[in-house]
Amino acid sequence: MEKDIEALLTEHAFFKRMPAPYLALVAGCGKNVRFAAGQLLARTGDPANEFFALRHGRVTIELHSAERGPLILQTVEAGDLAGWSWLFPPHYWKFDVRALDEVRAISFDGECLRGKCERDSAMGYDFMKRFARVFMERLEAARLQLLDIYGNIPR
Amino acid sequence: MEISLAEPMLTVPFRVRKNRKETSDTRTLELAKPDGSAAPAWQPGQFMMLYVFGAGEIPISVSGDPAKRETLIHTVRAVGDVSSAICQAKPGSAIGVRGPFGSAWPVDRFEEQDIVLVAGGIGLAPLRPVLWTLMANRRRYGRVSLLVGARTPDILLYRSEMYRWRKRDIDVRVTVDAAAPGCQGSVGPVTTLIPRTEFDASHAAAFIVGPEIMMRFVVRALAQRGIPTDRLFVSMERNMKCALGFCGHCQLGPTFICKDGPVLSYAQLEPWLAIRNA
Amino acid sequence: MARIASENLIPFLLNVLRGRGYTCIGPTVRDGAIVYEEIRSEQDLPIGFTDEQDGGTYRLKKRDDEARFGYTVGPQSWKQYLFPPSTLLMQAQRTSDGFLAQAHTEQVPAYAFIGVRACDLNAIAIQDRTFLKGPYVDPTYKARREAAFIVVVNCGQAGRTCFCVSMETGPLAKSGYDLALTEILEDGRHEFLVEVGSERGDAVAREFPTRPANDDDGNAAQRMVDRAVAQMGRKMDTAGIKDLLYRNMDHPRWEDVAARCLSCANCTMVCPTCFCSTVEDVTDLTGDHTERWRRWDSCFTASHSYVHGGSVRPTTLSRYRQWMTHKLATWIDQFDTSGCVGCGRCITWCPVGIDITEEVRAIQETDRGKGH
């Protein structure tokens, strides 16, 4: 089963050009998961010990609001990642993650992966660099959304 | 010797045939010559100067099918006095037309290549004529993608036409900055659609229209995917009074947006856009 | 073949030109300055007057002779006649189902410009490129330009703000005129060297008394021009100036000049090549009649660069930089020539005496891009 995960990771954009030994290590923490459209992958407040590399389908990052229902902040496409609360304590999901389409993903055990990164710092560094890029892209996207560029001209 | 001073500053009255509401602040007008003769020929990317009696004149891109010459289609967003007056023009009333002016999208330069169209907000209006041209000659081009960004789903333009574009093998993907609860579409800036857009960067060109900030981020994302800046084209907007290259208002560095543009390659614009308040 | 006319040339010249239907426009004193207005007789000329100019300074002074053209340039240029400050383009009136628009027509005035300086002659040639050589032709400019009869008067002196030598636009006019005069005024001698530059200039010259010019006359005329060269008040090193300004768009000097600039737009009004205009659609009180006017405008106004949301150039710095880099740099990419003719008017008529030659020198001396 692990071999399958490793093969799937080589096809995933986040793991592009990751050295084979690291891929093998990472794959050891991963498993295949599947969600139907509309299903929650993660729920605000739940313990966060996993993240997802999306292989097929989109998810929405949402916040539940009592009066207004689910507030959609962003959608994340296949080839991208969802979930970063497993990285730093407190390990709780800050947002809901919901499948917009039928989703096939690889779920990674957070504790397993944190442990491997601590023990093999070279692999840990490679992994963190990739994650840092995700943060950067999400922040850039969030800033663009904040500017409301199609509405009034930002001052 | 008597001469007419006004050519080419003379506006010609056209009749409003239709005025269709697109969103809360945007309308699409269909204009026809009162005597029924054909409107002037124009190319995708060009604009007309539209005049409202007593209000003034502004540049608006033509957004119809360039092969259809009987009428002119303009999608207008009400942001000022004149644009608001145009949006309120009732069928049967008159709008003055002068033009066409400006440069066109270089569609025929990229036959057999992949075309990426990126539209933000009202930017889809000056790109729609390109879609008609591409659909009429679909086999001459490679992969064609249309990425659309808008503020919210209810202000997406031409939604009902998107299925038609998809049927002609155009990959149409839409994203909004802010969604209503239960929204079934993508949420996020239009740049987030680019990673999953398929094209061969060495044989592709992109046409981009939207707020300047959006255009800059989109250009950067496409350039990072390998499309060189001389194959990234944008439509620029500046203050325009004459549209003839005389009044000087529309200059960006040495470029007159009205006659050298509005369609320009990013390679040409880049050094000037990098200077603040140039 | 140059000729010599006596000091009484001007009355003859005015008569001949008027007889051919020209309205003679020439220098005259008004409100303490030498301006260009209709000249009906020689007495309208600023006889015996000169001007003293410097940054933010202009004064008329009496000379101790009867020179007809013993000054340099005043606040006006010939653009006000070829590219009038206000031009009616179109009239429209409301009808029951819309409106009717008509182009405004006018009788084209036939002007004879008397006393065109070499710098201003170059400025006309530069404006020709804007209004006649692009994808569109301005009908007003074209008609007036073709009708205009140009009588150059070469400079026999230069002012403290002149730098036509640096811009290679003077003080001697080389071509592009109908007639060129050089006022020879020395040692009790007062005559005019007359050079013909066109067929219609030749036809006019034949109608007033002249004698052929000899070497002595040629030398005398040359001495007048040499004096102008020697008196040039300013200098500008234009070698590589376009690239110099392109690579110094963030130079701190712009902040320095912006702190002084009042954004008053004087420089653009007096500059003989500035061509910015605006289009105004104005309605009468009934709301049933509108007129479309073209009026002079200036890139120093806040609304010049307005797009919905705000002005692209909201600061004095950005607007001053726009004016200067357009004049000296982007103009070259647009029209294959500098936009500056070295007439010095912008220096003289700037209320705070900003000197375009000094601004260029300051950037040259601390060129950010040096060595790149």
Q: What does this molecule look like?
A:
- The complex is a heterotrimer of chains A (155), B (278) and C (372).
- With 155 residues, chain A is α+β, with helices and mostly antiparallel strands.
- Chain A has a single domain, classed as Jelly Rolls (Sandwich).
- Chain A has helices at 2-11, 20-27, 110-119, 121-147, and strands spanning 30-35, 40-42, 50-56, 59-65, 69-76, 81-82, 96-99, 103-109.
- Chain A has a four-stranded antiparallel sheet with strand order 1-8-3-6. A four-stranded antiparallel sheet of chain A has the order 2-7-4-5, with no helix packed on it.
- In chain A, a hairpin with a 3-residue loop joins strand 4 (59-65) and strand 5.
- Chain B folds into two domains: 12-101, Elongation Factor Tu (Ef-tu), domain 3, CATH 2.40.30.10; 108-235, Nucleotide-binding domain of ferredoxin-NADP reductase (FNR) module (Rossmann fold).
- Chain B contains five helices and 16 strands.
- In chain B, the strands form three sheets. Chain B has a seven-stranded mixed sheet, sandwiched between helices. In chain B, strands 5-4-7-2-3-6 form a six-stranded antiparallel sheet. In chain B, strands 14-15 form a two-stranded antiparallel ribbon.
- Chain C has 372 residues and is α+β, with helices and mostly antiparallel strands.
- Chain C is built from 13 helices and 17 strands.
- In chain C, strands 3-2-9-10-11-12-1-13 form an eight-stranded mixed sheet, sandwiched between helices. In chain C, strands 7-6-15-14 form a four-stranded antiparallel sheet, with no helix packed on it.
- The mean pLDDT of chain C is 96.
- Chains in contact: A-B, A-C, B-C.
- Chains B and C meet through strand 1 and strand 2 of B and strand 6, strand 7, strand 8, helix 4 and strand 14 of C.
